[in-house]
Amino acid sequence: MDELKEAAIKDHYANIVKCINSLWVMDHLVTLLSLDEMDFIRKSQFTPQERTRELIAILFKKSEELRPFERFIKALEKTDTSHEIMAKAILNTYVCLLIARLKC
Fold first, then answer.
1. Is 39 helix (H, G, I), strand (E, B) or coil?
2. Which of 5, 11, 95, 100 shows its CA 20 to 30 Å from the CA of 72?
3. What is the DSSP letter of 32?
């Protein structure tokens, strides 16, 4: 994943881990994640927060050509209202980071 996109997610990392349902989000990422990755995230011994951390770690490792950031944002928007609000906050941060980079 592109470093600015990763930074935008990291800026909201604590809230993402605390607030999102990674299993709902993962359901919208089936064409991005492998079956092994999805099975790993679903492990019953993981807490919901650990599942979210694992999902984000996997997304960070994905090639930019697969558009993991954009697909993660879309998945958040499709799951529920609180996830949609989180998606907007992450996108706003990404735009601010882009603007800051362009000014340098």
1. helix
2. 100
3. T
Domains of the chain with bracketed CATH: 3-103 (1.10.533.10)
Q: For residues 91 and 82, what is the distance between their CA atoms, to the nearest angstrom? A: 14
Task: Please report, rounded to a whole number, the percentage of residues in the chain having pLDDT higher than 70.
Answer: 99
pTM assigned to the model: 0.93
How wide is the angle at C-alpha 84 spanned by C-alphas 82 and 86, nearest 5°? 75
| Contact between residue 99 and residue 65 where contact means Cβ atoms under 8 Å apart | no
DSSP strand E in 5-91: where? none
Exposure letters 42-76 (e unless 16+ CB within 10 A, then b): eeeeeeeeebbbbbbebbeebeeeebbbebbbebb
